[in-house]
Write a structure and sequence with these properties.
Blueprint: H1 21-28, E1 32-36, E2 39-42, H2 44-63, E3 67-68, E4 74-76, H3 77-83, H4 85-88, E5 94-97, E6 103-106, H5 111-121, E7 130-139, E8 154-164, H6 167-187, E9 192-196, E10 207-213, E11 219-224, E12 230-232, H7 233-241, H8 261-268, H9 275-278, E13 280-282, E14 288-290, E15 310-315, H10 318-331, E16 340-344, H11 351-359, E17 368-371, H12 376-382, E18 398-413, H13 415-420, E19 423-425, E20 431-433, E21 435-442, H14 443-453, E22 455-456, E23 459-460, E24 471-475, H15 480-495, E25 500-503, H16 509-519, E26 523-527, H17 529-533, E27 536-541, E28 547-551, H18 552-559
Parallel strand pairs: 3-7, 14-15, 15-16, 16-17, 24-25, 24-26
Antiparallel strand pairs: 1-2, 4-6, 5-6, 7-8, 8-21, 9-10, 10-18, 11-12, 11-18, 13-14, 18-21, 19-20, 22-23, 26-27, 27-28
Helix pairs in contact: 1-14, 2-6, 2-14, 7-12, 10-11
The structure holds adenosine-5'-triphosphate and magnesium ion (MG) (3 copies).
Length: 560
């Protein structure tokens, strides 16, 4: 590409809303251009990077036997009503009506559409396993779009969906994707960790996230310094909560053990203003649970009357334990004393008095069960905290890092198959549900996370695998012989299929050097009269800023 004819528009000023380096650099380097909050145009440089990341993804997905398709951005509401997510998904789901008053959504993800495809075409176990994937534009009406491509409203995702006849085969499909993801992020030049994750609104059981380690990441992760245990903080709590209680009346609690409204709002993915009603939460089976946030004034338990089937109270310190005793006592008189489970750490010194207090006759409590004998589940919650002993190896200490979630893999199991009747005939000719997995990569987020990990004060340092160009030729003087040499070199590189940007602009050397560092192409060939006299050009590496003179006729080989 000739710079003089290109739509590469670099900017000197820092954009106002850019609070992290990678966002600033992608805008200033002319990679992306904002259209509206969270909505971007990929300019030529940006699109080249997106295409390179996509190509790596395609190669690794194809190598695992996945097949590429392209599903529509617009999806009919009927599919979302069938899966139950029309009601579940909340405001991130952009809904609209067509001219005939029919409801549609702009897809934030494609489980429904792909499930519909499979139930229509797959009718025998012989047609499985299958893995369908796409690289496609998603829309999520994020509460706070920010950080450029990292948290956009409209963004490109690679999403894959596997279909298998039984859970052990789903495990095989999942492992294949895990392996592909490892290879993809390594090839993109990133330092990442795989962590145990919560499965969020998509639902399902086992799930892991691929986290690019970075101080600007929005996810907290805990990593053991001795064994391979690593988990998202969200998961470190919910893992505990999913264990069935001994009493048996609480099967799955979604209590995040959160202490502030802000944390609960983040956990539930709803705005804080909406939280009053979200404190009462329905699970997949329709059971209603109540979140109890200790120390909060907004709690209005009378609202829970008649709808709540289980209440779980938890206390992590003595102060909380006291208010917990009070709350428990308050539940009887308003008729909410059925199926209450209280969990508290026996190491808390007030435990006995709190239990006695809450059990006193005047509270009228009938069916409250206290779990005084704290089990491993509860200690797990505490070891979610930095510095505590790891719950897996029981030796190492947990260390906290911030991570950018670039990929997420899930074993969905039968969640969608049951709701949407995704079935096929098994070997005995009987109908069976199909086991499903889903696997996502944020393509733009991945490219930007790479910038976050690879830059310096002057600009981006692209790894060659996803750099917009591999080589840049910088012409310093406009003499005929220099022009001729640059054009010759450019033609030669192009012929050898090397992706090359040729800065042939009528600009001062200083301007060209600044742009060179900002855009971050790995190798530059600097051609000027001074070195030309000695039959030489200069080769410079962006990463180390190392320069070296090289004879003109050896320069091509040097680059290769
Ligand atoms: P987050 O926790 O950051 O909101 P998510 O868990 O909602 O992400 P998934 O549903 O797991 O996202 O989607 C798969 C991948 O899509 C994510 O791992 C991430 O890389 C990417 N992604 C999700 N939301 C966005 C967004 N708003 N902008 C850019 N990429 C995104
Ligand atoms: Mg999200
Ligand atoms: Mg997430
Ligand atoms: Mg996720």
């Amino acid at each position: 590409m000739l710079f003089s004819k290109s739509a590469i528009y670099t900017i000197k000023e820092k954009p106002k809303d850019a609070t992290i380096d990678s966002h600033e650099l992608l805008i200033r380097g002319g990679f992306i251009s904002q259209v509206s909050s969270g909505v971007y145009t990929y300019m030529p440089l940006g699109l080249k990077v997106i295409k390179k990341v996509s190509k790596i993804i395609e190669e690794e997905m194809d190598a695992k036997g996945a097949q590429q398709i392209l599903m529509p951005a617009v999806q009919p509401a009927e599919l979302w009503i069938e899966s139950g997510r029309w009601n579940e998904y909340g405001k991130e789901l952009l809904r609209f009506k067509d001219r005939n008053d029919r409801d549609f959504v702009v897809g934030p993800t494609h489980e429904e559409v792909v499930s519909d495809i499979v139930r229509r075409y797959v009718n025998s176990y012989k047609q499985l396993p299958i893995n369908l994937y796409q690289i496609q534009t998603k829309f999520r009406d994020e509460i706070r779009p920010r950080f450029g491509l990292m948290r956009a409203k409209e963004f490109i995702m690679k999403d894959a969906y596997s279909f298998d006849t039984d859970p052990s085969l789903l495990d095989v499909s999942y492992e294949k994707m895990r392996d592909a993801y490892n290879r993809i992020f390594k090839r993109c030049g990133m330092n990442f960790r795989i962590v145990q994750a919560d499965s969020g609104a998509i639902g399902g059981k086992d799930s892991e996230e691929f986290m690019v380690l970075s101080n600007v990441g929005e996810d907290e992760i805990l990593v053991c310094d001795t064994c391979d245990y690593a988990a998202n903080v969200e998961k470190a709590t919910s893992m505990v909560n999913e264990k069935p209680s001994k009493e048996g009346h609480i099967e799955k609690i979604h209590t995040p053990f959160a202490k502030t409204i802000g944390e609960v709002s983040k956990f539930l993915n709803v705005e804080e203003s909406e939280l009053a009603k979200s404190l009462f939460f329905k699970n997949e089976k329709g059971e209603v649970f109540c979140f109890v946030i200790l120390g909060s004034d907004t709690l209005n338990l009378t609202k829970a009357k008649n709808v709540v089937s289980s209440i779980e109270l938890s206390a992590l310190d003595n102060r909380e334990l006291k208010s917990l005793g009070l709350i428990a006592g308050f539940l009887g008189p308003i008729g909410l004393d059925k199926n209450i489970r209280i969990i508290a750490d026996t190491r808390l010194k007030d435990i006995d008095s709190a239990i006695v207090g809450a059990n006193e006759e005047n509270y009228h409590l009938k069916n409250v069960s206290f779990k005084k004998d704290v089990n491993a589940e509860f200690f797990d919650i505490r070891s979610a905290q930095e510095g505590e002993i790891c719950s897996q190896c029981k030796k190492g200490k947990l260390k906290k890092y911030m991570g950018i979630e670039v990929g997420h893999i899930f074993k969905l199991g039968l969640k969608y198959s049951k709701f949407m009747n995704v079935v096929c005939l098994d070997k005995e000719g009987k109908q069976q549900y199909i086991y499903m997995g889903c696997y996502g990569i944020g393509v733009g987020r991945c490219a930007q996370a790479c910038v976050e990990q690879n830059h310096d004060a002057d600009g981006i340092i692209w790894p060659i695998s996803i750099a917009p160009f591999e080589v840049e030729i910088i012409q310093l003087d406009k003499t005929e012989e220099i022009s001729e040499l640059c054009h010759l070199l450019y033609a030669q590189l192009k012929k050898s299929k090397i992706d090359c940007l040729f800065d042939d602009r009528d600009e001062r050397a200083g301007v060209k050097f600044k742009d060179m560092d900002l855009i971050g192409i790995p190798i530059s060939v600097i051609v000027g009269s001074k070195n030309f006299k000695n039959n030489e050009v200069e080769i410079r590496l962006r990463k180390t800023k190392e320069k070296k003179l090289c004879k003109i006729d050896e320069c091509f080989n040097e680059i290769m």
